[in-house]
Amino acid sequence: MKIANLVIVIILGQILIHSAGAQQALSKQDQVVRDAYKEIEASRSAMDGEISDEERSKRMKAFQESCRKFVSTYEGQADKLKEGLFDLGRAAIQSFSPERAIDFLTAFLLKNKTSPERGEATMFLGDALRSVNKPKQAVALYKEFIKVNPKSPLLPPARLGLATSYFLSLEFDKAVEQYRAIMAQYPKHEVRGDAAFQLLNALVYAGDYDGARAHLATLRKEAPEAPELAQKAKQYEILGRPAPELTGVVAWKGQPGTSVARMQGRVLVLCFFMMKNIPCARTLQSLSTMERDLRVEGVTVWGLTKTYKAGRGNWTVDLEAKLLNTYRQNPRFALQKMLRYTPKGDENEAKVWGPLEKAITVTLGLTKDTSALMAYRVRRVPTIIVIDKAGKVRLVEEGGQPEGGFQSQMLKRLVRRIAVE
């Protein structure tokens, strides 16, 4: 009820601002608003095609403004109001604004108890809640939709949303069951491909490495030319097996590292990175926060990069190690120096570089060659490896994210679970 009340206050507050005198002007505005609603329909159709992000943003803003005008004009007329609230919710989802979509769709569901669009709104609300990392609430909505709408054409994507929400809730076995069911029940539907690929991650996170390898082998038969699957096959070779020892480390910055073998009894997270890369720096900052939060639970993080300049001219390993230390203390300064970037002082620059002023606190290691990367099947950076307390590889994850991203949230949840096993 608290969420519902908050949503009602938000929506009604927005409506009241625009609706003063609306009743008196209703007849004059009626045709204007109906014309605007025709624009809404036209925009929706146009957005089904391939358009640029800039054009999509422009159309979505116009779309939302038309919807708001519709809502403010028809406040008090439930049969009209529901159209505006429902479209506002969909517009917010398409504009990648799930928080606003939750407000609008919740208000729609509260105000329209018998609308035939309740099912679709329920599913969209589940999508929005899943996007803001509220998977357990999303699970309840997807299950309600599936129960009430067993013949809906939206059932396949709703089932996929349910499976993904189980995965985000760390209910990996349920996610695996749902993904397999989708593949069996919808062999020709487009969701089958998504379910098949997402099943790989669910099996890995569930710890069923043999099952993941078997499923991957099946997918490779279906798509023998897919390089992504071939690379995963190499990475999956080390899952559930003793972690390779690190070789070739010539310098440590921060708390000195030792060896993988001596770290047994703690969860060890390795992040292979390159200094001259902004996503790597953001990922290392995120891992720094994770290590601080989980250190008492037995979690240690090491970042590893190879020498790129040592041996060129007068550049030595010692000089590269000093650069690594500067990078650890102030990634923004080091990156701008390496990229030869001249600060401009504009707003966009602040968004890109501002977060990089935060220091990296995890231990960073410098390797003299690529032997460690090859041992852990690293092909791109950043790549994150999770090694459990028994010294076995539990996860190989490519492409890190800044703190708060989906990938970083899932990684932290999995690492915490492994730490308390």
List strands and helices in order, with pairings.
Layout: H1 2-19, H2 22-46, H3 53-73, H4 78-94, H5 98-111, H6 118-131, H7 135-148, H8 155-168, H9 172-185, H10 191-205, H11 209-222, H12 227-236, E1 249-253, E2 267-272, H13 278-294, E3 299-306, H14 317-329, H15 331-339, H16 347-353, E4 363-367, H17 371-375, E5 383-387, E6 393-398, H18 406-419
Parallel strand pairs: 2-3, 3-4
Antiparallel strand pairs: 1-4, 2-5, 5-6
Helix pairs in contact: 1-3, 1-5, 2-3, 3-4, 4-5, 4-6, 5-6, 6-7, 6-8, 7-8, 8-9, 8-10, 9-10, 10-11, 11-12, 14-15
What attributes does this structure have?
single chain, 421 residues, alpha/beta, Serine Threonine Protein Phosphatase 5, Tetratricopeptide repeat, Glutaredoxin, 3 domains, six-stranded mixed beta sheet, 8% strand, globular, disordered N terminus
Structural write-up:
The protein has 421 residues and is an alpha/beta fold. It has 3 domains: 1-115, no CATH class; 149-237, Serine Threonine Protein Phosphatase 5, Tetratricopeptide repeat; 249-419, Glutaredoxin, CATH 3.40.30. The protein contains 18 helices and 6 strands. It has a 6-stranded mixed sheet, covered by helices on one side. A hairpin with a 5-residue loop joins strand 5 (383-387) and strand 6 (393-398). The two termini are 37 Å apart. The model is unreliable at 1-29 (pLDDT under 50).
